[in-house]
Write a structure and sequence with these properties.
The complex is a heterodimer. By secondary structure, chain A is of the alpha+beta class. Chain A contains 2 helices and 4 strands. Chain A is 43% helix and 12% strand. By secondary structure, chain B is mainly alpha-helical. Chain B is 76% helix and 0% strand. Chain B contains 7 helices and no strands. The longest helix of chain B is centred in the middle third of the chain and has 35 residues, at 104-138. The relative contact order of chain B is 0.10. Classes of the chains: A alpha+beta, B mainly alpha.
């Protein structure tokens, strides 16, 4: 019995330690809800990129100054759906722009060269064709 | 008919006919059976003068045992697999490989899947295994369960394969010049989980053999 008790204990201890490390490192349901909110914000930013392209195409082949709704381009979600703050749009040059949101846990989002986790801004570009 | 059944039947009839064990042994020997086979055949019947011959207990198969040990096997498998996956993902998360693929969000949901699976299957395994252990302690006859023996050997086999596979993979990666600390830590997780399970089942099978 003695030589069976040790592996049994080790397996149990391993499971408990792994679960504790999991909760400690990635957080419980509260953190997960925060991540999900950030995911929604990110997908809003992506829809807004489509909106920017639409506005640029239909209004003189240039990046718009502000994001508004036109007959050809129905506006997607323009404000943060959890805090109601508007997403920030800025024209950086004739061809480049950024759209930003207040992310709660930006480090946990997909890393990409277009997304700046520190400022919460997604960069985009428009080249008139 | 299995050899052991054939020989046990013969021994039964011979004992019934009043032949002595030595006579039976000689007759079987002449027929070409080996000593191990003859011993096994004679052992199937108790060595007393009582007639008809008294059977010794034999291994048995029961549906109830198959259910219990099948569930234990699955629960242990899920526990081992998800414990390893959780360990590997946590190492990736806490200690990201700079050259590895990104995508922490994907990892996070894998980690949560593994945690949920462990929370269900590990207590199930612990509880069922404790029940099985209690049953074999209370009734030594339960150790003769064929299903128990098979599940034990299958687990041992899989754990051994996993250990050997890990060893080969580590050596290959080392020779390939890519053995980084992250990789070694992940291999250690696989080896530790398979090693612990291997030791447990080796001890259980040794214990059951002693009981016979």
């Amino acid at each position: 019995m003695a030589n069976k008790a040790l592996p049994q204990f080790l397996l149990g201890a391993g499971v408990v330690a792994a679960l504790a490390a999991g909760f400690w490192l990635i957080g419980g349901p509260e953190v997960a809800r925060t991540e999900n909110r950030d995911q929604k914000r990110m997908s809003d930013l992506h829809s807004l990129q489509g909106h920017v392209t639409c506005l640029a195409r239909t209004k003189g082949k240039a990046l718009p100054q502000v994001l508004d709704e036109t007959r050809d381009c129905p506006a997607p979600q323009l404000t943060d759906r959890f805090t109601d703050d508007p997403y920030r749009y800025a024209r950086l040059s004739d061809t480049a722009y950024e759209i930003c949101a207040e992310f709660e846990l930006p480090d946990r989002l997909h890393t990409s060269s277009r997304f700046d986790a520190e400022t919460g801004c997604l960069h985009g570009s428009y080249t008139p064709d | 008919m299995k050899n052991s059944d054939q020989i046990a039947d013969f021994v039964h009839e011979a004992l019934n006919a009043g032949r002595s064990r030595t006579e039976i042994q000689q007759a079987l020997h002449q027929a070409g059976w080996t000593n191990t086979e003859i011993d096994a055949g004679l052992k199937a019947w108790d060595d007393t003068a009582f007639l008809p011959p008294v059977p010794r207990p034999r291994p048995f198969v029961s549906a109830r045992e198959a259910f219990l040990y099948g569930l234990i096997f699955i629960a242990l498998g899920m526990t081992a697999w998800h414990l390893v996956m959780l360990g590997i993902h946590l190492i990736d998360y806490a200690w990201p490989d700079p050259d590895g693929p990104g995508g922490r969000f994907y990892q996070l949901s894998s980690i949560r899947w593994s945690m949920a699976t462990l929370i269900v299957f590990f207590p199930l395994f612990a509880w069922l295994n404790r029940r099985a252990e209690r049953a074999t302690m209370a009734d030594k006859g339960a150790r003769r369960s064929v299903v128990r023996k098979w599940v034990g050997y299958i687990v041992l086999f899989l754990a051994a394969l996993s250990l050997l596979g890990t060893l080969v993979f580590v050596l290959f990666t080392f020779l390939d010049g890519e053995a980084r600390l992250q990789f070694l830590a992940k291999s250690a997780v696989v080896a530790a989980v398979s090693g612990v399970i291997f030791l447990y089942y080796r001890a259980q099978l040794a214990e059951d053999d002693d009981g016979e």
